[in-house]
Amino acid sequence: MNPLKKAESIFFQFGGHKEAGGFSLEIDKIPELAKVIFEHADSWLEEEQKQAILEQTPSLISLQPEELNPKIFQELSVFEPFGHENPVPLYSIKNAKVYHTKPMTDGKHVRFRILGAPESIQCLIWNRGKDFLELLSKAESLDLWGSLEESTFRSKTSLQFVVNYFQES
């Protein structure tokens, strides 16, 4: 809804709520709407990404790398099931020292480790591997936000830290 407020003056009907919105406009106003959308799209997307993290803040848990372990995963599993009204806990790790990076699928995804975390914990970035590796090449340490998940492969279950958001420390 908020992005459309920039174009509110061109609509003859406009409204909605956080989960849905609607508007009506004259057909000759479509180019004007497109102009507003294209002018603000990048900043809207960036703001949406930041807002998504802020909305998760009630479930934000700051951890040290060594705390990424099965015990914390088990302790928080009592709050399941997770969903819209009960989001999956979001963990933050500040000043993470990343090593042993392994690009997957031509760099689209990356597997890596964090200094101080148990060796059994795999860390993963899905779909933003190139951005992650580029930032990592310039930064000494990173702030990471993500979730702990169980993964079963070839009858072996392990814990992985799936990173949703990252930035230079």
Strand order, largest beta sheet: 3-4-8-9-7-6-5
Q: What is the CATH C level class of the largest domain, in words?
A: Mainly Beta
Taking the alpha carbons of the first and last residues, their distance comes to 32 Å
**Percentage beta strand:** 35-45%
The oligomeric state is single chain
CATH architecture title of the largest domain:
Beta Barrel
Helix content: 25-40%
| Secondary structure tally, helices | 4
Global morphology: elongated
Largest sheet: 7 strands, mixed
Topology, number of strands: 9
Mean pLDDT: 85
Task: State the low-pLDDT regions, or none.
Answer: none
Order of helices and strands: HEEHEHEEEEHEE
Structural class: alpha+beta
- Roughly how many Å is the radius of gyration? 20 Å
Which fold name is given in CATH as the topology of the largest domain?
Answer: OB fold (Dihydrolipoamide Acetyltransferase, E2P)
Domains counted in the coordinates: how many? 2
